[in-house]
Design brief:
It is built from 6 helices and 7 strands, in the order βαβαββααβββαα. With 193 residues, the protein is α/β, with parallel strands linked by helices. It has one domain: Maf protein, CATH 3.90.950.10. Strands 1, 2, 3, 4, 5, 6 and 7 form a 7-stranded mixed β-sheet that branches. Strand 1, helix 1 and strand 2 form a beta-alpha-beta unit. Helix 1 packs across helix 5, helix 1 packs across helix 6 and helix 5 packs across helix 6. It is globular and about 55 Å long. Bound molecules: inosinic acid. The site of inosinic acid has 15 residues, from strand 3 and helix 3.
Length: 193
């Protein structure tokens, strides 16, 4: 069964990661050129939910929205939902400077994923925990990938292929939870394209 969905994002990295995973479920993902509404909230799931509802009111076609944050233990969970702003203003160098001499390098990525259609919005969540590297490594991925080492690995996300990152990542987990649910939904509706 093949079906098509929109993703509201301007981030080519997110799009590629999501396309690869959803293709395994027969879901074709298309980028939609509308602006993602970014509300201020402590919870990435809530941010994704509001953005999906807003995008659906304009697009009127089934879509997903992903909102992701990096929660650093030694920074009491900061930057979390402010990860985009933090990366723009402080950058990876600034993050590593803040972490200089800090023994607790634990951090988690958290993705809130929201799906919207005429029936409303449904949300999913995915987490990946690990550590903040001492220095940036690797050139794949995007955002914080060069400084994040997932649990059980020695390489950063930026040193992995997109397939490897997808297997371990917050986004991968949220997308697979969504895809399992969505496949069941389509089956119960007798399949739609
Ligand atoms: P947003 O979900 O687009 O708001 O992302 C927040 C910030 O986290 C942006 O600066 C992204 O580049 C970064 N980010 C989102 N997902 C990932 C990821 O999978 N790896 C590394 N950085 C990410």
């Amino acid at each position: 069964m093949e079906t098509e969905l929109y993703i509201v994002t301007g981030n080519a990295g997110k799009l590629r990661e999501a396309q690869l995973i959803l293709a395994e479920y027969g879901i074709r993902l298309r980028q939609v050129p509308i602006e993602k509404l970014e509300v201020q909230d402590d919870d990435v799931v809530r941010i994704a939910e509001v953005a999906a509802r807003d995008a659906y009111s304009r697009l009127r076609a089934p879509l997903i929205v992903d909102d992701t944050g990096l929660y650093v233990e030694a920074l009491n969970g900061f930057p979390g939902p402010y990860s985009s702003y933090f990366l723009e203003r402080v950058g990876l160098k600034g993050l590593l400077k803040l972490m200089e001499g800090v023994a607790n390098r634990g951090a988690c990525f958290r993705t809130g994923l929201a799906y919207a259609d005429e029936g409303g919005v449904r949300t999913f969540v995915g987490e990946a925990c690990g550590t903040i590297a001492e220095a940036p490594r690797g050139s794949n991925g995007f955002g914080y990938d060069p400084v994040f080492i997932p649990e059980g690995e020695t390489r950063t996300f930026a040193e992995m292929s997109v397939e490897e990152k997808d297997r371990l990542s917050h986004r991968g987990r949220a997308l697979r939870a969504f895809a399992e649910w969505y496949s069941q939904l389509l089956l119960s509706q007798g399949g739609k394209t």
